Amino acid sequence: MSNFWRSFQKALGTRLDMSTAYHSQTDGQSERTIQTLEDMLCAGVIDFGNAAHDRQKSYANMRRKPLEFQVSDKAMLKVSPWKGVIRFGKRGKLNPQYIGPFKVLAKVEIVAYRLKLPQQLSQTHSTFHVSNLKKCLSDELLEIPLDEIHIDDKLHFAEEPMEIMDHQVKWLK
Predict the structure, then answer these.
(1) Entry's Gene3D superfamilies (predicted)?
(2) Residues forming a β-bridge with 98
(3) H or E segment at 101?
(4) Between the CA of residue 149 and those of 96, 121, 145, 155, what are the distances in Å?
(5) How far is C-alpha 63 from the geometric centre of its chain's CA atoms?
(6) Residue 146 burial (C-beta neighbours within 10 Å; 0-12, 13-18, 19+)
(7) Residue 99: which residues within 8 A CB-CB, separation 6 or more?
(8) How many angstroms separate the CA atoms of 92 and 111, rounded?
């Protein structure tokens, strides 16, 4: 391929400077300039490392909201689909992301809570990190029954097709 480009550039009357992906510089001057810039950037990171870290921390903390529950509050519990399950069609927006609501029994640590789980989830540990919980603001009448969803001990559910609407056979060459 390189012979083609050399002959092509020669036919056009242009000069071709070949380089590789690992060493994209074509002369010593470019290499020295790049090395100087790397040294300057490293020095800048050392001098301004804490300032950059503080700036990133402040940006992250602006978006973060502390989430606290009181005993006897209602919380929704996050679930996720099994990885590696063959999906039929796209993952729909109507798949459950949270189940519940469940009653908060106790605050175990600063960011961990113990929930009162039903008998179907008895194999699951009842203490959860606050990132897996969401405040429940709805009525108990809107509760999703767990009989419709099959959840394992790691709070993963399986997506199963209800019916196959159509099929097609493709013959490849």
Answers:
(1) Ribonuclease H-like superfamily/Ribonuclease H
(2) 78
(3) strand 98-107
(4) 9, 11, 8, 11
(5) 17
(6) middle
(7) 76, 77, 79, 144, 146, 149, 151
(8) 31
Q: Decide: 127 and 112 in contact? Cβ < 8 Å.
A: yes
Asked if residue 100 lies in contact with residue 143, where contact means CB atoms within 8 angstroms, the answer is: yes
- The CA distance from 151 to 118, in Å, is 12
> Do β-strands 156-157 and 80-81 pair in parallel, antiparallel, or remain unpaired?
parallel
Q: Could you tell me if residue 72 is left (phi over 0), alpha (psi between -120 and 50 degrees) or otherwise beta?
A: left
The Cα 131–Cα 64 span in angstroms is 11
pLDDT in tens, the chain (173 residues): 778 878 888 888 887 676 665 655 566 777 778 888 887 777 766 556 577 677 777 777 776 777 889 998 999 888 876 554 444 444 555 667 788 889 999 999 888 999 998 888 888 889 999 988 988 876 655 566 666 666 777 777 766 667 888 888 888 87
Q: Which two tokens stand for residue 83?
A: 């990885």
Read off the tokens for 146: 């767990």
The amino acid present at 135, given as its one-letter code, is: K
